[in-house]
Amino acid sequence: MQSARHSTPMNPATTLPTILAIAWLLPLAAFALVWVGYSLPQMAGGRASYGAQRTAGWLATGAIGTSCVLAIVALIIWLTQTAPHEVATVHETAAAHQAASEHMASPPTSYSGIYYTLAQFGKLRISIGYYIDALTIAMFALVTLISTCVHIYSMGYMHEELEDMVDREIATPDGNYYHRPGRYHRFYQYLSLFSFSMLGLLLAGNLAMVFMFWELVGICSYFLIGFYFERPSASYAANKAFIVNRVGDFGMLIGLMALWSCLGTLDFGDSNTPGMFSQLRSEAHQYELDAAAMGSESADTNYLLLFVAGVGLFCGCVGKSAQFPLHTWLPDAMEGPTPVSALVHSATMVAAGVYLVGRCYPIFVPEALLVIAIVGAITLTLAATIAITAYDIKRVLAYSTISQLGYMMLALGLGGWAAGLFHLITHAFFKSLLFLCSGSVIHAVHTNDMRQMGGLRHKMPWTAYTMLIGCLAIIGAGIPALGIGLSGYFSKDAIIEQAWSFARVNESSGYQLLMWLPLGGAFITACYMFRLWFMTFTGMPANTERYDHAHESPRSMVGVLVLLAVFAVGVGWHVPGSKLSVTSLLERARPAGTLETTTGTWLPNLTVPDEHLSHEPQIAIPAGWSAFAMAMGGLLLAAIIYVWRWLRAEEIQQSFSPIHRLFVNAWWFDQLYDWMFVRPALWKSKFFAGIDRYVIDPFVNLLARGTAFLARALDLVVDRKAVDGSINGLARLTWDFGNSLHRLQTGNLRQYVVFIVVGLLGLFAAVSLCWKYALAG
Amino acid sequence: MPILASLLTEPIGVAHYMVVGAVLFVCGVVCMATKRNALGILMGIELVLNGANVNLVALGSPYLRGESATLMLDGQLMAMFVIVLAAAEAAVALAIALNFYNNFGSIDVDRANQLKG
Amino acid sequence: MNLDSPAVYLSLLTFLPAVAAVAIACFAPKDNAELIKKATLAVTVVTFVLSIGMLFGWPGIEFKAGQAEMQHLFSVDWIPTFRIDYLMGIDGISLPLVVLTTFITMLGMGASWPIDKHVKAYCVLLLLLETGMIGVFLALDFFLFYVFWEVMLLPMYFLIGIWGGPRREYAAIKFFLFTLFGSVLMLVAILMLYFSSDLRPLGADKLAELKVPAERIEQILDADTPQHTFNILALQQLGQSTEQFKTELWGWTYERWAFLLLFIGFIIKVPSVPLHTWLPDAHVEAPTPISMILAGVLLKMGGYGIIRICYPICPEAGYDLAWLVCSLGVVSMVYGAFAALAQNDFKRLVAYSSVSHMGYVVLGLGVWSAMSPTYNADYWKMGMNGAMFQMIAHGISSAGMFFMVGVLYERVHHRQIDQFGGIFARMPVYSGLAVGIFFAGLGLPGLCGFIGEFFVVLSTWKYCIPLAVVAAAVVILTAAYILWTLQRVYLGTTYLGPHEEALTPITPREMWIAAPLLALAILFGVYPRAILDYMEPSVSLTADRLASKTSDFDGEQQPEAKVAQALSPQVETTDIPKL
């Protein structure tokens, strides 16, 4: 089963799938335990006690914590037991790279296999399997780590749910707030299910399994967004999230269908039969994308199918990663508890789209990559512009997440495979940190509105300064000359370098925009992030009452913040004393054949540059400096407005009021979609239901009535008229005949005699004339 | 009229009797058809019956037709029957006529149309 | 009684409910409703045990998983004049449906406890209905099939017409007439096939396999006149390997006419747009348990008929009309989903969701993608298996959904979606189960609805890309109507309708009905092979046999071959594929 290429005493080909499977299934066990164990008392009318609920929390945390340990064990096994992939070395110069690319023809080390088969039809097989490479391992470690952090953090954040909860968002008719039993254990139950689904998505050995867990994380997200389901806004947001995601999944299904029908498999790796990657990028073809594998007769059709497959898959990622045009669900998803926003809606689930694009990278043709890049570029700009006007602290972060995901997509689309995924990992850390900090703030002041905050750094210093680290990380703060900086510095630079490199080889002005947009985005990012930080933590308290009640969060929360802050700072660094870093780990997973410079078939002047070219000094230095300048510019602008107050925000708003309105209303996408899709769908549904009610049913009823009428008509016409009528008619005829004859019966004897005579004569004549021969004979 | 002419030249035979019978019959019929008096009609009936009797007797006569052509007195028997019947009929008819007269004070048969359908 | 004999066992399985019904009708005390209900429940449980007995049973009656051919085939003379037999058998296609029938009937009886009007008559009819349903799935003689088909119709008519809601008479008559219309068409097709069939070309071996007694085989083979048959398996053989049904009538072959007539008969039952309007009315008016059985089992007969009768007997017509089958499937999916979105009556919504979900079945059965040049039947197999799986999955999820609606209706006596809300806070366990079952209907991975839908949709692309795209788009609508409904009914704080005080937590009885359904939904969603291991060989064999004919239907035949065939009109018996 396994395509292991190394045999060591402790064979990773068998240990890794087992370890990761255990790590994957532990949260499921916690989920099942809490579900069944805590539903039974409810059946009997009781409810989970305070202690029992706490236990549920510990259970779930223990499960994910163990998973995290197992994932780290797996990471260590990976690092020690498998040899680096040939491409893995980060080449310092183009020359070295050139030399490397000569013998680059080998796919990354991976272990793939099947846990069990769901169904098999002839040669077609759909199974629950695994595909483990460096990317899987890295993501596994990342997800379990952040999930553990969030689990621990939630113990403090969600403690109100332990007892009867007063929901201040909902007013009951009698003027009080809504009271309900706490749902602490439910929260952990959903978190566990989410962790299980997310890990399944990472471990998946084929696209069908990816799709299943894709949906499952979607439904977990639905549950978690709708955690406060008593609030209409929460249930609405949950629905919106799931349905918008389904729109993306529709595209993904199309991609899946195309691949499935053309290749006959959805497996990533080769287990018994060649998987997708080795079919599309065969060794015989030097791992170049070979559309002929799609199996149709014409080359154009093959290419089109491959393009459709790629764009289809990307549609799914657009939905999940909240990219334009399906980005509208993510800001609403902030209705969920803040730890959920940190885990699901910033660090892991929404990054799954980026992960999937990275995972399926060998499938994308250059034109499909261009689509990805364009969508990413639009998204990052669009979301950044909205973030700059939002006042809800979580919404700012949500739009920032969308924007950063746009960066990742852009990087992947421009050929920066490692850059995009690297940013995914760094972003996961600093964005979860930012969300958890905002959660800490919300926990303290009980509002999301930044206009109600201010000066909080005196009250909650730990939160304030860990969040500052997060902000610095997200804007990519670092010193280009020294090459040191926070994690975001490395990953964002890598993206901008790749954009720069792309713009250099593609002359056309449209392609240049793909470099300028991320640069501009960097400026806006710095601007809105520090706007957030300044508005929250500096200046004078805007609302003294809330300020007075504010306090630093409990140790479980702060501890997590510090831990994440450490990661946000250092995750981009090399491990001291070795060449090992996240980037080098990722490079081990780079799909074969995706490093070369490729050109489009339909768009011959589209060139996707080799990623390593972007590290050349003539690109890296100007790109790094301009990114730095942009970030500093944004930071300064934020400081000018919100710290030094040389410019007043209100005045800027007024002078740019149309643009401001556009941004505040999120470009009116919600209204547009409501008008374009939701209403027409409802109209259509009314129409179809109306067809039933007003066309088919009346038709059937008409038919029934017609039949009844016909029956009556038949009764009337055939029975009464024809059959009865003929009998009655005969009787009447006889009657009439008799009647008419009675006139002959005059009673006049003499007449009778005449009749007799005439009759006799007539008879005689008749006999003599007609019966002559008979008589003769 | 060659037939009648030949009758006059031939010796008396069945045909002559039949002519007489026919004349009687026709006279009777005409009498029945024209008389309004019930007794007149009765007379007409007698004439018809006797016309028929002449025929029966003539056709049944071995003298006129030869032994082999007749069935031995059949004609005469039939005639006897007819005479008896005529007598009975006359009796009944006269009774009817009498009753009729008693009721209507007339024997005009045209007034006797009570049986009209 | 020798229970080792399949004849005895299958007959017992079929007629046990009917016998029990007669016994209850004759002997049960009329005034003791509780006793009658318990007795009926016991009978349904025994029937269920008998049906799953075949999975674990003793030698002679155990069902061999992995064997594609018909098992336990037996035949007894019934009306010899017309060669009508009491012919029954079971294979991977019918076994899951039989088990589903007995299972849903058992749960349905459990759900019948609140019924207190004419309990005795209700129970008797329910048991008769069960006999009819099991018989339809087991009968292999066309005439017998037809008889069971009609037998099942009447109890259903009364069950809706007497125990239904306010417009029950209308609904019952509508249901009855629609189905009767279909079965009349079916009857025409049956007779058409009967009178054009001739057993003689099959040869002695085949006939022996079809359980024709030895002395009759000689009689058949020596006969000078065509030997007609009602045997479905024989008709399948004849349809697939001879030209007997190719007589032309008004420009179409008999085969096509028969296919069309049978197909219309079956899609009325499925139901497929535009012949679906009996379903919402019937469901809305029917009492909860009857809705469960109607959606859970009766609709499956249409799909069963298509895969067991339409396609195998009329393969070429099936191939030519596959576009019609698939289009109807997709249209139903879209139409049902949109219509469901517009409903305000909870039960009507679930009914329309059934229309939408059964569309997948029709689509999956029809995707005859084994086309030129490869004639690869794998994708069609996947579609067919997906369709069959979807039938089982829908049997579980729709029965569950109707039951969940029924639980609410029993408490508050209304079904207006916009007059619910806040149920989650009042009935948490019930709501948890309901959400689970509704998600199974939504096609969430890990629950049973997903597998069938996913397989069907994936297999469609190979047949027709635009249809596949439309079919895939239905996932959005499905999510929309189900989530919107869940939101309006279960979420929120305030209950907007009447009888708020009646919203008491779920009772153990209701729990015992809902929990097994959800458990099965999860089991089949996580481990679909629990069904597929039994089903897949038979379904795939059907697809394989038909697909192997595709190249002939494509007109790939050599011209010389056609001439040779024209010169020798007598059908050769040699090229019949191995049964």
Automatic annotation (TrEMBL), chain B:
InterPro entries (UniProt xref): NADH_UbQ_OxRdtase_chain4L/K (IPR001133), NUOK/Mnh_C1-like (IPR039428)
Entry EC no(s): 7.1.1.-
Alphabetical keyword list: Cell membrane, Membrane, NAD, Oxidoreductase, Quinone, Translocase, Transmembrane, Transmembrane helix, Transport, Ubiquinone
Chief location bin: membrane
Uppermost EC category: translocase
Any one GO BP annotation for this protein: ATP synthesis coupled electron transport
Source organism superkingdom: Bacteria
Transmembrane portions of the chain: 12-31, 38-58, 78-101
Localization terms from the record: Cell membrane; Membrane
Keyword Signal on entry: no
Pfam family, one: Oxidored_q2
A GO cellular-component term linked to this record: plasma membrane
Membrane topology: Multi-pass membrane protein
GO molecular function terms attached to this record: NADH dehydrogenase (quinone) (non-electrogenic) activity; quinone binding
Catalysis: reaction(s): a quinone + NADH + 5 H(+)(in) = a quinol + NAD(+) + 4 H(+)(out)
Keyword Transport recorded: yes
Summary of the function given for this chain in its UniProt record: NDH-1 shuttles electrons from NADH, via FMN and iron-sulfur (Fe-S) centers, to quinones in the respiratory chain. The immediate electron acceptor for the enzyme in this species is believed to be ubiquinone. Couples the redox reaction to proton translocation (for every two electrons transferred, four hydrogen ions are translocated across the cytoplasmic membrane), and thus conserves the redox energy in a proton gradient.
Family: Belongs to the complex I subunit 4L family.
Subunit and interaction comment: NDH-1 is composed of 14 different subunits. Subunits NuoA, H, J, K, L, M, N constitute the membrane sector of the complex.
PANTHER family per record: NADH-UBIQUINONE OXIDOREDUCTASE CHAIN 4L (PTHR11434:SF16), NADH-UBIQUINONE OXIDOREDUCTASE SUBUNIT ND4L (PTHR11434)
Name of protein: NADH-quinone oxidoreductase subunit K
Organism name: Aeoliella straminimaris
Phylogenetic placement of the source organism: Bacteria, Pseudomonadati, Planctomycetota, Planctomycetia, Pirellulales
Gene: nuoK
TrEMBL record, chain C:
One family name in Pfam for this protein: Oxidored_q5_N
Annotated signal sequence range: none
Keywords for this protein: Membrane, NAD, Translocase, Transmembrane, Transmembrane helix
Location within or outside the cell: Endomembrane system; Membrane
Residue ranges annotated for the NADH:quinone oxidoreductase/Mrp antiporter transmembrane domain, each copy included: 139-472
Domain NADH:ubiquinone oxidoreductase chain 4 N-terminal residue range list: 81-131
Segments of this protein annotated with the region Disordered: 550-579
Any single GO BP term: ATP synthesis coupled electron transport
TM region positions: 6-27, 39-61, 86-109, 121-140, 146-163, 175-195, 257-278, 290-309, 321-342, 349-371, 391-409, 430-457, 463-484, 511-531
NAD found in the keyword field: yes
Membrane topology according to the record: Multi-pass membrane protein
Molecular-function annotations in GO: NADH dehydrogenase (ubiquinone) activity; NADH dehydrogenase activity; ubiquinone binding
Alphabetical list of InterPro entries matching this protein: NADH4_N, NADH_Q_OxRdtase_chainM/4, NADH_UbQ_OxRdtase, ND/Mrp_TM
Acyltransferase found in the keyword field: no
Record's GO cellular component terms: endomembrane system; membrane
PANTHER family, alphabetized: NADH-UBIQUINONE OXIDOREDUCTASE CHAIN 4
Family statement: Belongs to the complex I subunit 4 family.
Protein name as it appears in the record: NADH-quinone oxidoreductase subunit M
Organism of provenance: Aeoliella straminimaris
